[in-house]
Design a protein that fits this description.
Elements: E1 3-4, E2 21-25, E3 31-34, H1 36-42, H2 46-49, H3 64-75, E4 80-87, E5 93-105, E6 108-117, H4 121-137, E7 142-143
Parallel strand pairs: 1-7
Antiparallel strand pairs: 2-3, 2-6, 4-5, 5-6
The chain binds flavin mononucleotide (FMN).
């Protein structure tokens, strides 16, 4: 089993209840728009996000299968809704419920957009356990926390 253990991943940023984290990407997942809340919560400036692959905020605890499902769903023209743990620039993390879907102009798919809202502590715990299990089942590196 391959493990990583970096305590810097353990600092959580709470997403405020009354704010939406919004971003848009081109059809390949490159960020074309980031709202102020996205910048604040991820710890990046707008200039650091625009033009980058959205995986810039990918957390190592996320199973690849979640993103495969996301891309399959949105490429089929459907809306994807899921729980995502994201990585901040400072290696801290934040949990969200994300809704990802297409942006259409004159009936043509031009971009993708994502709206994210906070989730409860219970949901975070539930998904941490689920995602750890999914990563383990797919031989992906898993988190190891050592209390000394
Ligand atoms: C509109 C949109 C928003 C996305 N938001 C996130 C996100 O917040 N966090 C994330 O890790 N991946 C997000 N993704 C998925 C990434 O494009 C990417 O598939 C994922 O980070 C996994 O990285 P990888 O494909 O390089 O393995 C988003 C994709 C789209 C189209």
């Amino acid at each position: 089993m391959i493990e990583y253990n970096e305590s810097e991943f353990l600092v959580e940023t709470e997403v405020p209840q009354d704010e939406l984290i919004i971003s848009r990407t081109d059809l390949h997942g490159k960020i074309t728009y980031a709202n102020e809340t996205f910048c604040d919560i991820s710890g990046y400036t707008e200039a650091e996000l625009i033009g980058k692959a959205h995986s810039i905020v990918r957390h190592p605890d996320m199973p690849s299968a979640a993103f495969e499902d996301l891309w399959q769903t949105i490429q089929a023209g459907k809306q994807w809704k899921g729980i995502v743990k994201n990585l901040r620039k400072d290696k801290g993390f934040y949990w969200v419920e994300a809704i990802v879907s297409g942006v259409y102009k004159n009936g043509e798919l031009v971009e993708y957009k994502s709206l994210r809202t906070p989730i409860s502590y219970e949901t975070k715990l539930q998904y941490q356990i689920l995602y750890d299990k999914m990563r383990q089942e797919h031989n992906e590196r898993i988190r190891k926390v050592i209390y000394t």
